């Protein structure tokens, strides 16, 4: 089956460990709660977009310990998983997120199979069939092969290294990927790193210098900002029914953005629909918990209640 969107990045397990307080070095503490959730930026985006009607392929590497119930949940949402590859002898990526009652936290990341991605073959089936390629988290060595594979193809390429921008990328590699992309997604922190890497003074100058179609900077409850070639547009945040947890809101935004792009909306409308979709993500704990369809997202946006 053809896929409109190919999403490259992590499919992971998030282990949330809640403790009374962050322990001091060389000490121990009992835990209040331990929760295992389905996560990973690529899987989050893919499942969100699929639930909103997009034909999407998830391109990730996981270990031979990848849970069958996770695979089934992706398929139930309509995600194509032919390029979600299990690698024998390697682990599925995991994040241990330790958080205390005051909101302090730290995260331990086991890249698992994704750490070795540079040694694996590219997902040619997805690259041949999709119209939009989302390059997310993962080792640049693998994505260099992806960019080379699609350099002559007529595809829309979005670059979204997320939190890995600071500790995985160097300026030269980042700039090389940006030059070959049409869209760039980031948050406020990542925006500053991108400007430092590119030696640009503003997002506007970065858009012009790298000939980008757009840059989207997400800003949490403040909404987001869309930078086009000759225009800057502020995008509102929409009111959630409640606020439980912000984790995964950025991935939900991207999934909503792609659902709107799939249906032919303008970039500005895509961002508004992405913002509306993100408002559902904060209503519960877990990036893949509050899955909603197109009609619910549009209904909230059309009410025009600004957060």
In short:
By secondary structure, the protein is of the alpha/beta class. It has helices at 41-51, 68-76, 124-129, 140-150, 164-168, 171-179, 188-198, 203-209, 249-262, 267-281, 294-303; strands spanning 5-8, 12-19, 33-39, 56-63, 84-87, 94-100, 105-110, 132-135, 156-159, 183-187, 214-218, 224-228, 232-235.
Briefly, what CATH class?
Alpha Beta
CATH topology value? UDP-N-acetylmuramoyl-L-alanine:D-glutamate ligase
Instruction: Output the helix-strand order.
Output: EEEHEHEEEHEHEHHEHHEEEHHH
Rg result: 19 Å
Shape category: globular
Main sheet characteristics: 9 strands, mixed
Describe the strand arrangement of the main beta sheet, using strand numbers: 5-4-1-8-9-10-11-12-13
Describe the model.
The chain is α/β, with parallel strands linked by helices and 307 residues long. The protein has a single domain, classed as Ribokinase (UDP-N-acetylmuramoyl-L-alanine:D-glutamate ligase, 3-Layer(aba) Sandwich), CATH 3.40.1190.20. It is 35% helix and 23% strand. The chain has 11 helices and 13 strands. It has helices spanning 41-51, 68-76, 124-129, 140-150, 164-168, 171-179, 188-198, 203-209, 249-262, 267-281, 294-303, and strands at residues 5-8, 12-19, 33-39, 56-63, 84-87, 94-100, 105-110, 132-135, 156-159, 183-187, 214-218, 224-228, 232-235. The strands form 2 sheets. It has a 9-stranded mixed beta sheet with strand order 5-4-1-8-9-10-11-12-13, sandwiched between helices. Helix 10 (267-281) crosses helix 11. The longest helix has 15 residues, at 267-281. The protein is globular. It starts with a strand and ends with a helix. The model has no long low-confidence stretch (mean pLDDT 93).
